């Protein structure tokens, strides 16, 4: 009954108030897990830090870390509890692997976390620990940090990487009726490497993946990083299953990849 690890795209913040194929998928995703997790650990693209951070709050505030969106979004709150014991356990795992880290209190959950979790656990009744990513680290290092948390999955903890495989805000097309060919080709290439668990190719994606500079621009590679953290957390099983794929605004990739564990497809 080991929990899987997951990569979930968080798309536009407006997912919080939208009803579409992806939001409906997310709202039933918990039913595909082997059991209800006792806690959730999220590596978020919107917490990019050179020092590994571990949230350590009893109850999380809700960050509205965006601007220019519908007013109703700023009234949404997701007061999920933290789990100080789990935060300490994660810190100990990092320390055992010689990874410097710091406990973070009072920051709140950014929209890369609460927009997704509000659909998975709408009652905000599952403890959450948010972890930062470091976009300046190599893909191999990011994977290795995720791997440090592998044992948590055996303790009924769900590990999520929240980001976006194709996430270039400068290439959005608000009226697009179909996804851009280059975005689809990039996603397809990444998917092939995931299904083969081809770390050699994935760790070198910046040189090998088609259209990589469009899909993962240098100014936004923190959105790709959570994929590697989530994969690392399932290094013991090395199995990848895609449960969902769609696009927003022509190129923002909305996808769900599940690593290890047992899920019903």
From TrEMBL:
UniProt keyword annotation of Oxidoreductase present: yes
Cofactors, names only: Zn(2+)
Pfam families: LigB
Key words, A-Z: Dioxygenase, Metal-binding, Oxidoreductase, Zinc
Protein name per the record: Dioxygenase
Organism: Paenibacillus motobuensis
PANTHER family named among the record's database cross-references: 4,5-DOPA DIOXYGENASE EXTRADIOL-LIKE PROTEIN (PTHR30096:SF0)
InterPro entries (alphabetical): Extradiol_dOase_DODA, Xdiol_dOase_suB
Extradiol ring-cleavage dioxygenase class III enzyme subunit B domain ranges (all copies): 5-244
Top-rank taxon: Bacteria
Similarity comment: Belongs to the DODA-type extradiol aromatic ring-opening dioxygenase family.
One MF annotation (Gene Ontology) recorded for this entry: dioxygenase activity
Keyword Transcription regulation: no
